[in-house]
Specification:
Blueprint lengths: L5 E6 L2 E6 L18 H30 L15 E7 L2 E8 L6 E4 L12 H10 L4 E4 L16 H16 L3 E6 L2 H11 L4 E7 L12 H12 L3 H8 L2 H12 L8 H10 L7 H7 L7 H9 L4 E5 L14 H7 L4 E5 L6 H4 L1 H13 L2
Parallel strand pairs: 5-6, 5-7, 7-8, 8-9, 9-10
Antiparallel strand pairs: 1-2, 3-4, 4-6
Helix pairs in contact: 3-4, 4-10
Length: 366
């Protein structure tokens, strides 16, 4: 009997082992001239099962070999010129940057995505360090950056508790809170639950403002199935190669005319290739880390002056949209202000001067 031929076909977000449809591969793609017999169906099922098992075993071997060469997140280089400190949490240790000073502290929190880290908001931290003498803090969320990346079920409450504990134990005073993207949902939640913790908020490209967010039900099923089969890790490291990250930034984060900064790309590639890097993003990809209506309610209930920054570009290419923002602004016009900066989702990298011109007077107000 001729030997079967198989090709490995990559279909995002799924990998499929596909049998070559040729006369030399009769096992999986048999052309029946009559109704297939039960025995032929059994043989086909067994062949398919063996093929899937082989693919799973290959993925496990690949992952085990890769893990041996991955560094601990703590081995990543520092991203800003500040002291790096540790915040103990029940789930593990979170790391944060601190520059001492005088006045109202400014706390910066990055987004949550496949490559999230304080490096995303480093341009803001560095500008504040040059322009002010205020105490500065930047927190790496658990599962990202230089924080531990434990193997657990990540959910929004973990990050909200982390921010609450950080503000209480590490800072201990009312702060000006600057958050990016999904980090805005947790910042708004904490500021709503504890109004005394924040003096002012800046929300840059906040999530929770789109009419439709997250993957389809089929997409969620595929992500969860890949996790149960223990192959999501393989997909993650394939899809966070430098070339894949560049395509994502170019198509969904930056406007067409803006180049993707090499520094941003290099660190994104590094932070996604450390031990446990795939764990928290698995729950981001399946949309389990978004608070949805809870975020919209938190924005409406904020009782502190809040500046919302969004891009002027509002087409389907960006990874986020803001259709619900006008209603939120109307519902909380007393505390919410809105300004437009740039055309992409990372104005601190795309048009930093325009962003600083927008947020510095707001943060300086008494």
């Amino acid at each position: 009997m001729p030997r079967e031929k198989f090709r490995l076909v990559k279909v995002r977000p799924l990998l499929l082992l596909w049998a070559d449809r040729s006369p030399s591969c009769p096992a999986l793609f048999m052309r029946f001239s009559t109704k297939p017999t039960r025995s032929s169906l059994i043989r086909t099922s067994l062949a398919a099962g063996a093929l899937a098992s082989g693919g799973w075993a290959a993925a496990q071997l690949y992952n085990r070999r890769r893990r041996k060469h991955l560094l601990h997140p703590g081995a990543l280089p520092k991203v800003v010129d500040a002291s790096l400190k540790t915040l103990p949490l029940p789930e593990g240790n979170a790391r944060y940057y601190h520059r001492s000073g005088a006045g109202v502290p400014v706390v910066l929190v990055h987004s949550i995505n496949a490559a999230g880290s304080t490096h995303e908001i480093a341009p803001i931290f560095e500008h504040l360090a040059r322009a002010t003498e205020r105490p500065l803090y930047a927190l790496d969320w658990l599962g990202f950056g230089q924080s531990d990346r434990p193997d657990l079920r990540y959910h929004p409450a973990i990050f909200a508790r982390q921010l609450q504990r950080f503000l209480r134990d590490a800072v201990g005073a009312p702060v000006d809170l600057v958050a990016l993207s999904l980090g805005c949902e947790y910042a708004a939640s904490v500021a709503t639950d504890r109004p005394d913790a924040a003096r002012r908020l800046v929300l840059i490209a906040p999530t929770g403002c789109a009419a439709n967010e997250g993957p389809s039900a089929v997409g969620q099923f595929l992500v969860r199935a890949s996790d149960r089969l223990d192959v999501f890790e393989t997909f993650f490291y394939r899809l966070t190669r430098t070339s894949s990250l560049r395509r994502f930034y170019r198509k969904q984060v930056f406007p067409d005319s803006a180049p993707v900064p090499d520094a941003l790309l290099r660190y994104a590639a590094r932070t996604t290739h450390v031990r446990g890097a795939h764990r928290a993003p698995r729950y981001f990809v399946s949309s389990d880390l978004f608070t949805r209506e809870a975020a919209r309610q938190a924005y409406r209930r904020l009782e502190r002056p809040t500046l919302v920054v969004t891009p002027e570009r509002r087409d389907a290419d960006l990874a986020q949209s803001f259709e619900l923002l006008p209603d939120m602004l109307d519902a909380n016009s007393r505390h919410l202000q809105h300004t437009v900066v740039g055309r992409g989702l990372l104005p601190q990298w795309e048009t930093p001067d325009a962003l600083f011109d927008a947020i510095m007077p707001f943060l300086s107000a008494s």
